[in-house]
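Example record

The entry below shows one chain as it appears in the dataset: sequence first, then C-alpha cells.
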Amino acid sequence: MKPSDYERDGTSVDKRTFLKLCSATVAARFLPVLLGQSPDTKLRNWAGNVEYSTDRQFFPRSLQEIQQFVKSKSRIKTLGTRHCFNQIADSSDEFLSLREMDQVVRLDPNARTVTIESGMTYGELCPHLDNKGWALHNLASLPHISVAGACSTATHGSGETNGNLATAVSALEMVNAAGDTMSLSRIQDGDLFAGVVVGLGALGVVTKVTLDIQPRFMMKQYVYENLPMNELRDHFDTIESSCYSVSLFTDWQKRRINEVWLKIRLPENPKFDAPPDFFGAKRATRNLHPIADLSAENCTDQLGVPGPWYERLPHFRMGFTPSAGRELQSEYFVPRKNAVDAILAIENLRDQVGPHLLISEIRTIAADDLWMSPCYKRPSVAIHFTWKPEWPAVKQLLPLIERELAPFHVRPHWGKLFTLSPTDLHARYQRLPEFVEVCNKFDPHGKFRNAFLNTNIFA
C-alpha cells in the first residue's frame, strides 16, 4: 500500500475536499477497474490502495487450461474482481484470473440449485436467476464482486436469519496443487465441506460453485434519518428484527445513527407500514447515499418503490461506482449478544475515528458452521468502517478499535484491513488448526500460499 498515492505533502485532505476529488476523478480512474483493466501500468485492487506484486496474469477459458497452468507453476494465486483491501490475494509470481470463466453451467429447479463458473459476478448471475424465476437468499452491499471470491472470504449481506453468502454454497469444484479436479458437496463431505467453503484462496483454484436458490421475490426499502443512539441502545433487537435486512450507517458523531436502511421482503409478516417516525428517526423523503455528501444516483431505489430482490438487497447498483470509489475498508465481527456494548465502545472513540472516516455500517448476520467464517457458531454483528484513503492514520486507529473490541473476541473480515496478530487470530478460530491440516493435504508444497497467508494462517 502506498499512502503517498492519496496524500499531498504529507497532509491528508479533509472530507469535503476528498469527496469532491472522488466525483471529479472516479470516471477516469474507476471505470477501467470495473472492466478488469488497470488505470495505469500497475495492477491494483478496485479501490487502488493495494498495488499487487506482479502484473503477470493468465486468463484461462477452460478447465483444461486451468489444470495445465496449475501443473506448470510452483507458485500462483487466483485473482477475482480485486475487491479485497489487503494482500490476501497478492502474488509475487503469477496470477490466474478467472475473468473469462463466467457462465451459468446448470440451473436445476428440482434440486433448487444453480451451478456457475467461478468468474461470474453477482451482478451477472442475479438477473439471469430472476428471469428464470429464482433468487438467492441474500446479497452483499454491492453486486460487482465475484461469487467465488465473496464466498471464499465469507463476505456477507445482512439479516437476523440470513447467513453470509458462503452459506448458500452446496457444492464446488476445485483444481488442487497437483492439477487434479476435486468435487466436494455439503451432502457428501459434511464437516470437511464446511472447512473448505471459506477457503481464503489457500486450498486450490475454485472452478465451479453450486448455490442454493429459492423462488424469486420482490422487495422495497425505506431509509430513516437520525436515529438517536440511546434509542438504538434500548431497542437494538427490535430495530434489527423489524425487516428482512437492516443496515445502520453512522459517522459516530452527534450520538446518533445517520441513516437506517430497512429492506422489506414482499409479502412480509408482520407488514412494515413505513411510519413517518421509527424510534425517533424520520423517514427520508428523497433517495440517499450512505455518505450524505455523495449523490444517490448509484444507489438502489428507496422510498418504498417495489423491485426485484437483486435490485433492493444491495445498496449500490451494477454499472455505477460502489461506495466512494477511492477508500479503505475494515470490518469487525462480534457476537450478536454483545452488539450494543461493542457499538458503544466504538462510539467512545468518535473523536479519534471521525477525522479519518467516511462512514460506518452496522449489520447483523446469522451463525453458520463454516470453519473460517467470522460467524462460525455465533450470530454476529459486523461493524464496518469505510475510511478516507489515509493509510498511516488508519493504521494507527485499527489497534485502538481492536483493543476496544477485544473483550468480545472480535474477528476481522478476511478481505479487509486489520492489525490483529496471528496469535489473536488463531485464538479466535477454533477450527483453524484443522483448516491448516486440510490445506497441507490439498496443497502440500504451498503452491497457493503467499505472505499474507503464511503470516496469518500458517505461522
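Notes for this example: The chain has three domains: 3-97, 104-215, 218-412. The radius of gyration is 21 Å.
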